[in-house]
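Most newcomers find our protein records easier to grasp once they have seen one. There is nothing in a record beyond a sequence line and a structure line. Getting from the letters to the tokens is the skill we practise here. An example says more than a description, so a record of this kind follows:
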Amino acid sequence: MKTEMILASSNPHKLREFREILEPLGCRIISQHEAGIDLEPDETGETFAENSAIKARKIFEIAKRPVIADDSGLEIDALGGEPGVHSARYGGTRDDKIHNEIVLKKLEGVPDEKRTARFVAAITYIDENGGEHCFLGKFEGRIGYSERGENGFGYDPIFMVGGVSSAELSPEEKNAVSHRGKALRELAKFISENK
């Protein structure tokens, strides 16, 4: 029998990533929307781990069954770690294009070697007994000079890995190296070892 888990998100990109890695383990991943939960908790944490735990706990309180939540974002060294936990609402908007424009504008004149950045993901898993587990992943790169690629979302088009943007990687290539992919594999390992 498949273990059903609620993903504390209705983002189709995230849902696809979680399903690709966890469903081969016998998990059935449904979005919070599919579970009939229409809720967006206030992300008041100061870290990605705190915010993912806030989301997971709220959904678990309602559903009383296994929940997975993630919080992730971009940390840019030249901007003191911005946008950080504010990645999804950077500049007061949820518009990815505007987020990327803000970053590129702020980094005008910043040389290549100082454009280092990383995506960070924290995934909180609350099991059927209410046990809470957190998994972290990082994806190092640098910020490019313009948007490139069609495969990604969010900051992917300006996040460079070697000579390509994260949005130019195939979904398989991205899952193999991305912050969420790394955290998801840690979660998958935990689930496999605790069946």
